[in-house]
Each structure stands twice: as C-alpha cells, then as structure tokens.
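To the wet lab folks,

You asked to see what we're planning to order before we commit. Fair enough. Below is the target structure as tokens, and below that is the sequence we designed to fit it. If anything looks off to you, flag it before the synthesis order goes out.
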C-alpha cells in the first residue's frame, strides 16, 4: 500500500487512540494475575494483537472486542504449543521473554524481518543470571530466541539501550521464586520505566529503588485482577501535534492526560519552545501552528518522537538539533539514517550525527519515498507531505497499522489530503 499526500490545512477535533505501551503492559499484567481482568479503551493494532496472541500462547484466556476480558495464569506459565511469532512488536518480544521464563517449559520467540534484527542479547544474559535458560538459536543475540524457566531470582547487571529490557525484568521478577537485585549500568527512555513502575505500584507490588540505577524486588509476589481504562497515546498524538504546528493549523487533540507517565508528552513543550501556541484544556490539547524557530532537544527519553520532530526541524527557522538518541538506530529501522535520507530526497537540509540529526529550514518538495515498512517513518513522511510542494507518495504504508490503524481516517477527518492507494 502507498499513501498519497497533498498540501493541507487541518482544523477541528480528533480523538487520539489508546496508548500502545499501556495496552501491552495491561495485557501482560492481566495475563500474570489470578482471576479475571477488564481492559477498557484498549488499542487494537498490529502490536497489541501480537501481545494478545503471545499471552494466549503462554496460557492466558483473552476475549477482545470493545472491552477486553482476560483470565490470567496466576504466574503459572505454560509451554506454548508452537513458536510464538510477535510480528513487528519489539515491546511484546522484550516484555514477554521474562514472562515466559516463569514457566518450566521451552518457549521459542521469533518475529518479522525487522524484529530479527533487533538486539536481545543483554536481556538473554540477564535471564541466565537469574536462573533461566535463554539463548539465540543462531548464536547472534537476535531472534529467534529460546527461553525456559524457572526464574529463580538473584543478582544481575544490565545495560539497557532500550528501556524494555528493564521493564521486562521489573514486570516478571516479582513472581520469581526468589528475590531479584538489578543493577542498571545504563538506561535510555526512562519515562517508559516510570510507566512500568506506576503499574507495579498500582498493583501493590513491593520493590525498593535507588533512582533508576538499582532495584531490589522480593520474589513470590502476585498480581491481582483489575478493571482499568487505557489512556490516549502521546506517541500517536505526536504526528498530529507536529502536523498542526508546521501547517499553521488549529487542531484539538482529545483524550490526552498531561499527568500520565508517557515520555512523549514532552513533545508539547518542545513545540511550545519552537513557537507553536498550545493550550491544555478540559476538552483536549489545542495546537495552533505558526512561525517556528529551531532549537536543540534531547530525545533520549522520547526516541519515538525523532521522525516527526525531524520534519518539524525542516520547517523551522534556523537550525534544529535532535540529540542524545542513539537508540533510534535500533528501532524498526535506523531512524536517524532513514529520516536523513528521506527528508534529503524531499529537499531537506539534514545532517546525520552519531546520536541524532541537525536540520535546517528547507523548502520541501513532494516525491516518491520509501517508508521502509516503519510505521513512525511512514507517518512522519505523511506529515511532511502536508507542507511539501506537489504530491508526496510513501510506500509500505500498511506499516502504520502496527500502532495507529486509523491514522489516515483521522487525518482526513480534520482536512488532511491523505489517501490510501493500492499498488
């Protein structure tokens, strides 16, 4: 599938879909709990479908619909009948690995081509330190990987280029046989760990922490069933926030909670610093675009914002620097290299750094662009097409269904000239 985009002005109000990160954590915790849980306002997308099927394979009973009901395993993970394919969902792969290590049987995980390029070795080593078997079938630290419990607990040191390694351990180690001590040697994307800790605290899980460098987690704990609604997703909202800012539009995004732990809410402050007028109102976050100026932004906590913020950088006066985000190279694609390449094709003045991008105000031109099968790259390039001269065409556009299935429909709802095109 392709997206065809023409210059557009946006106006009106749109509901932002539920958070992928919260939805997957809710599915994991409900699957580990004993009893029946209810998840309201969940996100249904490729990634969350992968989380559901993975937890079903590990023994949870899940019914999906407008509201999801889940009967958990009580931490008694069963060996799956077949290989677990997480599709394109790195979150599911990482968070489910430690969950699977609670079981006594072998679990084999794989995924699509992008997943099989994403490193998992540090987490495998951590699981071995905690008593589990864990290895890559090809010996290269990449999926397919095999895990077998039981997870006994112990002491582990781990580098976390992705916060999902740490979140994986934090979510499942409370159910390990013994106590666990985690020494975090390095950590990116800290707000996502805060999100995980918020879930643990809501569940009454006991742990002791020294900052985010050291955690002590008593074993033998249990999750309890819950009934909870999922908040709206700031990562998805980023594309509409940025679209309104660069097109000079007046747009209100509904359902977002600035008090939530999601790191990408920082995009609101970034755009304000660049000159966008933003009001947080009871009915939603109102964004009024206008003349933007460049700035320097540390994206270590918000790597998913890099593609969209790169587009904003090309539309802002002067120079914009997006820095301290080397982990953006380890996502579905090397997003630093891919955004430099695609925006350059559009006429953007873009310089690649080891850990980010430098962007200068540019006159963007529509052209045919590869989306590289990366949902955030495709959506960012669609946003760029709203201000580019002529028509922009982005291929592999079906990738957006991984996290934001109704992106095109919502864009059309507020006046965006964005259309699906069969190839």
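Sequence we intend to order:
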């Amino acid at each position: 599938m392709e997206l065809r985009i023409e210059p557009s002005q946006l106006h009106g109000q749109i509901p932002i879909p539920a958070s992928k990160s919260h939805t997957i954590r809710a599915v994991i915790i409900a699957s580990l709990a004993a009893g029946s849980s209810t998840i309201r306002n969940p996100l249904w997308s490729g990634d969350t479908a992968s989380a559901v099927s993975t937890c079903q394979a590990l023994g949870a009973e899940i019914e999906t619909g407008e509201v999801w009901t889940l009967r958990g395993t009580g931490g008694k993970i069963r060996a799956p009948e077949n290989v677990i394919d997480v599709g394109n969902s790195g979150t599911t792969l990482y968070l489910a690995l430690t969950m699977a290590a609670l079981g006594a049987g072998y679990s084999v995980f794989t995924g699509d081509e992008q997943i099989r390029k994403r490193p998992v070795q540090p987490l495998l080593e951590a699981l071995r330190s905690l008593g589990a078997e864990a290895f890559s079938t090809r010996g290269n630290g990449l999926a397919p990987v095999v895990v077998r419990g039981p997870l006994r607990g112990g002491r582990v040191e781990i580098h976390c280029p992705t916060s999902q390694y740490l979140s994986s351990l934090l979510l499942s180690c409370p159910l390990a046989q013994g106590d666990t001590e985690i020494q975090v040697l390095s950590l990116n994307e800290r707000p996502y760990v805060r999100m995980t800790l918020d879930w643990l605290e809501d569940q009454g899980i006991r742990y002791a922490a020294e900052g985010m460098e050291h955690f002590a987690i008593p074993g033998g704990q249990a999750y309890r069933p819950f009934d909870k609604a999922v908040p709206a997703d700031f990562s998805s909202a980023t594309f509409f926030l940025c679209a309104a800012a660069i097109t000079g539009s007046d747009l209100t995004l509904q359902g977002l909670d600035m008090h939530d732990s999601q790191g990408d809410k920082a995009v609101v402050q970034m755009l304000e610093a660049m000159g966008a007028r933003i009001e947080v109102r009871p009915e939603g976050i109102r964004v009024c675009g206008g003349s933007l100026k460049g700035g320097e932004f540390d994206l270590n906590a918000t790597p998913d914002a890099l593609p969209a913020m790169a587009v904003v950088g090309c539309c802002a006066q002067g120079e914009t620097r997006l820095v301290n985000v080397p982990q953006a190279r380890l996502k579905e694609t090397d997003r630093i290299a891919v955004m430099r390449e695609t925006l350059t094709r559009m006429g953007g003045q873009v310089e690649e750094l080891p850990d980010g991008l430098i962007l200068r105000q540019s006159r963007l031109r529509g052209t045919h662009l590869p989306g590289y099968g990366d949902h955030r790259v495709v959506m960012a390039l669609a946003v760029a097409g709203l201000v580019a001269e002529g028509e922009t065409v982005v291929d592999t556009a079906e990738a957006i269904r991984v996290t934001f299935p109704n992106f095109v429909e919502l864009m059309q709802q507020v006046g965006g000239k964005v259309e699906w095109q069969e190839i």
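Structural context that might help your review: Residues 270 and 342 are 23 Å apart (CA to CA). The first helix runs from residue 20 to 32.

Thanks,
Computational group
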